[in-house]
Amino acid sequence: MVHNADQDVRFRGCSLVTGEPHVRFYAALPVRARNGIKIGTLCAMDTQAFDFNQDEIQALHDFHELLEETLLIRSIRKPAGSTAGSSMNCFSVLPARFTVTWCP
Questions:
Q1: CA of 97: how far to CAs of 31, 48, 64, 68, 94, in Å?
Q2: What is the helix, strand, coil percentage profile of the chain, to 5?
Q3: Model pTM?
Q4: Interior angle at CA 30, CA 104 and CA 54, nearest 5
Q5: What is the pLDDT of residue 70?
Q6: Structural domain boundaries in the chain
């Protein structure tokens, strides 16, 4: 979790921090396939620096769990040899305080 990316040496030069959208807060969780391979990252970003409270941390973890379960169900339902639905498009959820984005 990065509370203020503008002051974090790891992110200070990142174009998302120095330019639009001027990200300040960033939190991420790896998304894994059922075989354990990392297939993407679930990220929460905001243009204001702040600390997540316990409810917000739990909400991010809950959303992460829901995402992995959804991906698992989709992989089980996919017919053998089918390429349809083999990748999900990026999507965003816009709660009041932050943006959550999933990109495989």
A1: 22, 9, 17, 23, 8
A2: 30, 25, 45
A3: 0.67
A4: 125
A5: 84
A6: 5-78+85-103
